[in-house]
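I hope you will forgive my troubling you with a question about protein structure. Could you please explain, in whatever detail you think fit, how the structure tokens follow from the sequence? Thank you for your consideration; the sequence and its tokens are set out here.
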Amino acid sequence: MTPPYSVLYMVMTPPYSVLYNKGIKTVVLSGDREEAVASIAKTVGIGSEFIRASLTPQLKSGVISTLQASGHHVAMVGDGINDAPSLALADVGIALQIEAQENAASNAASIILLGNKLSQVVDALDLAQATMKKVHQNLSWAVAYNVVAIPIAAGLLLPQFDFAMTPSLSGK
């Protein structure tokens, strides 16, 4: 049988590594005992300065408020009712849940990921970044098109080139 920490290492390390390589700092806020949280974080490679253990829901919210006050954008990943206040407070709240039923965490979250896998957080981030890239690309095309088409439609070319857009150009 595989030891639980080995399984946890295999589950947590790839998403953490991807986030780290993207320049995203990961902070562990947990209500569990400090020894357990420190051991898991050390196994995955999260430095002790980014670990907060034995936290109540109010203390988790306090840490998030402090991070936001110092200019950080905070995404909170949680899975239980004790994470609901922090999920609601964070800039982006991500609820992990095993089943499709609603709970307090999913009600407070901006994003709900079914399947309870940390790798889905990375997938959601990649999808959001690709979507924003496409939005910016589409806005650029729309602005460029309008910069060219609106003056033509308004008849700006008529005086210089004797060109006007008449209804007969529509092909009907």
